[in-house]
Amino acid sequence: MKVLLSWLKDFVDIDVSVEQLADTLTKNGLEVGEIQSVGEDFVLDIEITPNRPDCLSIVGVARECAIGLSKRFTPPRLIFLPKISSAYLKETKFGVTIGAQEACLRYIGRVLLDVEIAPSPDFIKERLEKIGLRSINNVVDITNYILIETGQPMHAFDYDKIEGKQIIVRFAKEGEQIISLDETQRQLSKQDLVIADIKRPIALAGIMGGYDTEVTSKTRNVVLESAFFHPQTIRKAAQRHALTTEASYRFERGVDFPTVDTASVYAVDLISKYASRSSNKTTVIIDKTVDVIIKQVALSSKVVLKYEDVEKVLGIMPSVFWIRKLIKNLGCEIMSVSKESLKIQAPSTRSDLKINIDYIEEIARFYGYDKIPSQGLPELMVEKEPVLKNFSEKDFENQAKDVFIKTGLREVITYALLSEDEIEELKIKNTLPLKNPLAKSYSVLRPVIFPSLLKVAKYNFNRGVYDLAIFELGKVYSSINSEPCERKVAGILLSGKKYQDCFGNEIEYNFYDLKFAVETLLSYFKISDYSIKEAKQMFFSNSCSAEISVSNEKSALIGKVSGKIKTYYDLKRDIYIGEIYLDTIKKGMKNVIRHQKITQYPFIDRDFSLLLPKAVSAGEIIEHIQGKNDLICAVDIIDVYEGKQIPLDMKSITIRIRFQSDEKTLKDVEVDRICEGVKETLVKELPCQIRK
Q: Does pLDDT of 614 surpass 70?
C-alpha cells in the first residue's frame, strides 16, 4: 500500500519527520518497507497484513498515525446529496437485479446525467500519479481517488452503452466472454461473478470493468457502481484469470459495508464539482439511485474486556484511563464501564476485533512491546547425552542443513498447517486440529511434512518451474494416546532434470538420488549400522519406497509419490519425497568428524546380477554383503529389471561392490576371490541365483 504523506495530513496533524513516522508505524505493526521522495512530498510503501483491510486506505493509515503520535484524528466529512431539482421531473429508466445473492450482499447504482469528461483537477491527478496510478479522465480518476482514500472500490459505466438500462449481478454462463479494460478477451466460467446488462457481461465483478462500456471522452451519462462482493468469490476469480487489481486486492480482504454508500455519495459530490458542463454551466443531474441490500453485514459481537485479563496476558496493567482513551481512538464504542471491565463494540471497519484477546493485542501494540517486561522461563532439567556433549541442537540442525546444501538441495520454509479437506481426502489419522483456526485451509497441524512439500512443487509446476531439489527442516505434530507429540524432521523433494550430460541427454532425478541424500546425512554423522526395507506408506508408490532404520528404529521414509496423491494435488510429473526423523539420527550418531583421511590407493568395482523373487528386498541383499570383508567399502544397487526374459514373480537386481584398502593397492585376483565368496554366500542364504 503506497501512502502519500501530504494525503495523510488531510486527516491528522503530522509534525514529525517522515523517518520518525515510518518508525512509529513499523513499531505499531504497519511495517514501512520503503520511503520514496517525490518532489517536496514522500511516498511510504507500507506492508499491510491480511487481517487489516481497514489500513488499505489513507483514512485507515491516518487513524493509526494519530494513535501512534498521540494526535487528533479528523474523520472524513459526511456529505449529503442535494435533492433533485423540482424542474426536473422525468426519471431515466434504470434498474438493478442481484441474481447471485450469496456473492453480492449490496449493490448501489447511481445514474448521473450531463457529465463532462475532461482531464482531472491537478490535486487529484498529482496525488494519483505520485503513488503510481495513471491519470485517465476526471470520472475514472475520482473513483480511483476515493478507492485509495476510503478503501472502497467503485466503477463507472457509460450509461448509454448499457443494453436495456438494467444492471444484473450474476454468475457467468459457460462459454461467455468479455473484453476487459486492458483490451484482453477473457473466457468466463460459471464461477466468475459478472456485472451484466440484458445481453452480455459488462464487467468482471470486483476486478475490472469491460471495454465495451468504459467511460470515454464521448460519454455524457454515467452509472456509478459501488458494491459489497463476497471476498472468496473475488479471490478465486482473480486467481483464475491471473488478474490482480487495486479493486480486487481490497474486495478479497473485505470492504466496509457502510462505506459502500458513503464512498458513492463522496464520488457523486466530486463528480458534481469537477465534471459539470462548463460550456452551458449545467450541473450534473443525480437522476436515479438504486440501492439493493440483500443482507446487512453484522458488526462483531460486543466484548467484555476484563482488566485482570489484560494484566494476566501482558504482565503489566496500563492505566484504565489510557485504555479507555485508546479504545475510543480505535473507533470503538464503549457500551458500559465497571470497576473490573469495559463492554466494547468494534466499528464496522475493524472486522479483526472479535474477542477480548484482540483488544489486548491492540493495548500491547500501542503501549509498546519494548515496555512490557520479559518473563523468565522456568528452569528445566535436561539430561545430556554423552555423545552430544558440546554439540547443541542448533549445531546439529546447521550441520544437517550444510549436508543437504552440499548435496545440491535448496532450503524452503512452509506452513506447518493443513486443511480439513486434505486430512479427510488423504485419510490421515492421529491429527491435532486447531481450536480457533484462521481459515479452513490452515486448520490442522501437519502430522507429516509431505503435503507441505508437494504444495511447493505444485506452486512451482504451475509457474513453469519443473526441476526441483528442495529440503525443509520443520516440525510435524501428531496425537499419540490422546497426547500431543511434536517431532523435528527433515523433508526432501526431488523432481525433474538433475543435469544434462555431454551428449545433451537430460538426466532426471530418481529414487536413488533421494536415497543418496539420506545416506549422505547418515554417513556425515558416522552412522553405518542402518538397514533398509520396503516401506508401506500411503504417499508412496507400491513399487518404489524404502524405510531406513538406525539401530532398529525407523529413521527415514523415502519413495516415489503415488498416482493417487499426484492426482489429488494435480501434479503431472514424477516426484520423489522423503521424511527423515532427526531425533533418531541424533540418537544413533557417533562422534562427528569434519575431516577424514583420503586413502591414496585406488578402488576396484565389481558388478554382478542376481535373479530372485520380488518379495526379497534390496535391503536384505545389502545386509548379507556389508561387513563380510574389511576391504568392502560400499555396496550399491545400480539396476532393477522386471520384464521380458524374467519370470513374472521374479526380478533381476544388479549389484556394485566397491573394494578399497588404506594400506595397499588391491590386485584383481584378490578382489575376484572375495567377490566369488560373496556370491556363494548370497546363493546359500537367499533364494537367488547368479545371472550369467
A: yes
Integer Rg of the chain from CA: 34
Burial of 379 from C-beta contacts in 10 A (0-12 / 13-18 / 19+):
exposed
Which residue ranges make up each domain of the chain?
Answer: 2-69, 95-293, 303-368, 387-588, 604-690
Per residue in 388-400, pLDDT tens?
445 578 888 899 9
Instruction: Show the CA angle centred on residue 296, arms to residues 294 and 297, nearest 5°.
Output: 125
pLDDT category, 464, cuts 50, 70, 90?
Answer: very high
Fold classified for 303-368: Phenylalanyl-tRNA Synthetase; Chain B, domain 1 (3.30.56)
* β-bridge mates for residue 42, sequence order: 37
Question: Which set of grid coordinates corresponds to residue 46?
Answer: 507500507
Q: Which fold has domain 387-588?
A: BirA Bifunctional Protein; domain 2 (3.30.930)
**Mean pLDDT (the chain, rounded):** 89
Q: Identity (one letter) of the amino acid at 116?
A: E
- Hey, what amino acid is at 436? N
Q: How far apart are CA 391 and CA 625, in angstroms?
A: 34
Nearest of 186, 181, 169 to residue 209 by alpha carbon: 181
The answer to whether residues 621 and 638 touch, using CB atoms and an 8 Å cutoff, is no
How far is residue 445's CA from residue 452's CA, in Å, rounded to a whole number? 11
The CATH architecture annotation of domain 604-690 reads 2-Layer Sandwich (3.30)
8-state DSSP, 628: S
Amino acid at residue number 364: A
Average pLDDT over residues 514-543: 87
pLDDT tens-digit profile of 422-433?
888 888 888 888
- Whole-angstrom distance, CA of residue 642 vs CA of residue 382: 52
**What's the burial of 668, exposed, middle or buried (CB within 10 Å: 0-12/13-18/19+)?**
exposed
pLDDT for residue 301 = 86
Contacts 24+ apart (CB under 8 A), 117-121: 117/215, 117/216, 117/217, 117/218, 117/219, 117/275, 118/275, 120/274, 121/274
* 400 and 474 Cβ atoms separated by less than 8 Å: no
Please provide the CATH number assigned to the domain covering 2-69.
Answer: 3.30.56.10
For the chain, first and last CA: distance in Å?
72
Whether the predicted pLDDT of 527 surpasses 80: yes
Strand partners, 472: 491
Least confident of 52-56, 354-358, 440-444: 440-444
Could you give the 3-state DSSP secondary structure of residue 83?
coil
Identify whether the C-beta of residue 659 lies closer than 8 Å to the C-beta of residue 676: no
Provide DSSP, 8-57.
Answer: HTTTB---S-HHHHHHHHHHTT-EEEEEEEETTEEEEEEE--TT-GGGSS
Q: How far apart are CA 112 and CA 215, in angstroms?
A: 12
**What angle, 0 to 180 degrees and rounded to 10, lies between the N-to-C axes of helices 122-130 and 138-150?**
60
Which amino acid belongs to residue 357?
A: I
User: Which helix (H) or strand (E) is 271 found in, with range?
Assistant: helix 259-274
- Supply the DSSP symbol for 691: -
pLDDT at 627: 77
Contact between 132 and 122 (Cβ < 8 Å): no
Phi, psi of 690 (to 5 degrees): -80, 130
The answer to whether domain 95-293 has CATH 3.50.40.10 is yes
Q: Which three cell numbers stand for residue 509?
A: 532425478
Q: In this structure, what are the phi and psi dihedrals at residue 460, rounded to the nearest 5 degrees? A: -75, -40
C-alpha cell of residue 572: 503431472
In three-state secondary structure terms, 1 is: coil
Could you tell me the three cell numbers for 193?
A: 461473478
Tell me whether the CATH fold assigned to 2-69 matches the one assigned to 303-368.
yes
